[in-house]
Structure formats: structure tokens, C-alpha cells
């Protein structure tokens, strides 16, 4: 049995980058062997740097802990959650297709918005998420799945209006795919 404490971050009890990578590789191998889909969500808090500057380190750390608790509360059965550092999180959704991943992402987006947004709080936090699911019947890697979800999150934040509080699982501009070693025609998108 692995030492679960070593696989957890002290800050919030979530998997760290190394533990996530190992779990993703194992889950991807199992999904490919079983012919099942696997999905990944990448997410980060919008305008977190400005929040940190305005609210201070203690308040920002408390917001990250609240976010981790909230995400854990909405974690689907069998899913895993990792904190990559800063305000970046990844959710691994074994046996989920893209539609289910987007539904989960929308639930998370709404929960974070409800938790951190109020008329009395001008320093509201929201979250932007990228979703990707493995393509059926093709060869794929955990790294390419994670890269695509992250690219979709980044595209949603940088290129789509508004630049925050959204879920993106759609196509990317053709010049984005080579950067992530992803073939656009292989991966499903909404």
C-alpha cells in the first residue's frame, strides 16, 4: 500500500503533481485497455494574482483552502483531485466522456461562483475550466489528454470573452495543437 500522506499536499490534502502524473498514467492504461473514456478538467481561479495583491497572503491562502474543500465536496465518485500549485487544480474523471466532464465542470464553476461572489464582496473569485476526454478507439496518452484540457482552459481565459468564469471544451485554433502534440481530428470537442 502506498503512503497516502506522501501523495498529499499539506496545504489542502489534495494530490500533488507527481502523484497526479502516476495516477493519470495508470488510469489511462486501464481506460485504453478497457476501451473506456477518461476525462480531465484543468482549472484555475480567475484574477487570483490581483486577489492576492488586494487581500494579502493569509486571505489568499484561506481562499485556496476553501476552494480545495469546495472542489472535494463536488468530487464525483471515483474521481481524483490534484493541486498543482498556486491556484491551479486538475480533476481526473475515469470512465467519463466529454459531455459528463463538461457537466461536472459547469457544476464546479457554479459552486465556486456561488461561494466567492456576493454583492458585499468586491474581491469575488471565479474559476475557468478546460475539459478534455480521451478519443474512443484511438491511441492516446495521459500527457496529451492533460495538455489538451490545459490548452482549452488557457484559450478560454485568453481568447474568449469574457476572460473568466467559463468552461471550454471546444476546438482550438489550428496553430495551437502542434504546441501540445495533439492531433485535432482525433480528439472530440463540443
Q: Flag low-confidence runs.
A: 1-9
Q: How many DSSP H or I helices?
A: 5
Helix content, binned percent: 40-55%
Shape: globular
CATH fold description: Alpha-Beta Plaits
What is the CATH top level name?
Answer: Alpha Beta
Give the averaged pLDDT, no decimals. 86
Number of strands: 5
The chain-level structural class is: alpha+beta
Question: Nearest-angstrom radius of gyration?
Answer: 16 Å
From the N-terminal CA to the C-terminal CA, the straight-line distance is: 39 Å
Side by side, the strands of the main sheet go: 2-3-1-4-5
Topology as H/E string? Answer: HEHHEEHEHE
What would you note in describing this structure?
- With 190 residues, this protein is an alpha+beta fold.
- The chain has a single domain, classed as Alpha-Beta Plaits (2-Layer Sandwich), CATH 3.30.70.270.
- The protein has 5 helices and 5 strands, in the order αβααββαβαβ.
- It has a 5-stranded mixed β-sheet, with helices on both faces.
- Helix 5 links the parallel strand 4 and strand 5 (167-168).
- Helix 2 (48-55) packs across helix 3 (57-73).
